[in-house]
Amino acid sequence: MNTPNPDPNLAPSPDQSARILLKALQEKFDVFRDVQPLAIGIDKQLLAAQPELPRKVLRIALRMHTNSLRYLKTMEKAAVRLNLDGTPADAVTEDHRNHARDTLRERAQKHAAQRKLQRAAEEAQRKADAAAAQHAEKLNQLAAKFSRHGN
After folding, report:
1. Which segments of 1-151 does DSSP mark as H helices, in order?
2. CA dist., res. 112 & res. 98, Å (int)
3. Closest CA to 71 of 31, 18, 41
4. Stretch 142-147: mean pLDDT, rounded?
């Protein structure tokens, strides 16, 4: 999707910066590393702890983290959200658990549909290859038949 910047003089894209930031957050905070349910307003806690963080990049990094399969699977069963320091913040609502469950189900369905399309494309290619091979064989047989008569 996003490729690394070939020119080191160019600034990284926001997505690249967000990935770098997310990795740093995972190294620094257990709640990110262990993919725990994050407190609502965790962005404010992060900005208070690290005011130099660019807000746009932080929002992208948080979106990446909270839309990851691991996070959604955690949220699907979670009861409590955690602050940056790992202390309990607030309860995970049933709506949020349902949202995680629905998102996971939609992704699984989309993935299954993509696999089905891929298998259909592979089967169509296999049939096209077989038809082309059969056509080539018939042409070879005709060429051989007429080359014998020509001699």
Report:
1. 14-28, 30-33, 42-49, 55-66, 69-77, 94-150
2. 21
3. 31
4. 86
Cα gap 83→96, rounded to integer Å: 17
Q: Residue 56 and residue 138: Cα distance in Å, rounded?
A: 63
CATH number at residue 123: 1.10.1710.10
Query: How many angstroms separate the CA atoms of 75 and 81, rounded?
Result: 9
DSSP state of 6: S
In this structure, are residues 19 and 64 in contact, taking their beta carbons and an 8 Å threshold? yes
| Dist. CA 35–CA 112, nearest whole Å | 25
What is the distance of C-alpha 25 from the center of its chain? 19
Q: How many domains does the chain have?
A: 1
| Domain presence at residue 3 | no
Q: What is the pLDDT of residues 59-97, one digit of tens each?
A: 999 999 999 999 999 999 999 999 999 999 999 999 999
d(CA 110, CA 122): 18
CA distance 44 to 89: 13
pTM recorded for the entire structure: 0.68
